[in-house]
Amino acid sequence: MSTTDTESRRTNDRSASGYDIRPLQNDERARYASHLSAEEQRILLDHGTERPFCGTLLDNKETGMYACRLCGLPLFRSHDKFESGSGWPSFFAPFDPEHIRNLRDTTHGMVRVEIRCARCDGHLGHVFPDGPPPTGQRYCLNSVAMEFYPEGVEPEQRTHDGA
Predict the structure, then answer these.
(1) What are the tens digits of pLDDT across the range 105-138?
(2) Which of 71, 73, 78, 115 is a plausible cystine mate for 158, CB 3.0–4.6 Å?
(3) Domain span at 140
(4) Known active-site residue 117
């Protein structure tokens, strides 16, 4: 993305796909997080990981989209999901690259790329460079970090002041 494109996005605070990606303020994030279960908070807010092969979305084969459980921002589409054998729902491309933040993660004696929601900064999982074509990426997600919405159903957007 060029500097001009970045500046343009900052001006209107919308992703290329039209969603509000302004970062939530701490009080807004806390308000939305108050509705999460203890396990959802552990993963999204405290950067936890669910055990492999136990996530409710691992075997989901329905057509639709996966959105952030905390703020509703669309993250992945079902047609970009694949069976990685890792034990976590895996995708080869995000719904919109501007909806995902990549951060260097050096915890647990490894160097990985953590992925977070661009709007609420919720921990989603990690991305690895061993996925299938066409991207070669494997986005490994925690099921509890996402909600599934069947095709035709739009997730509620939890943005600034509920707007």
Answers:
(1) 877 777 889 999 999 999 999 999 999 999 999 9
(2) 71
(3) 3-155
(4) no
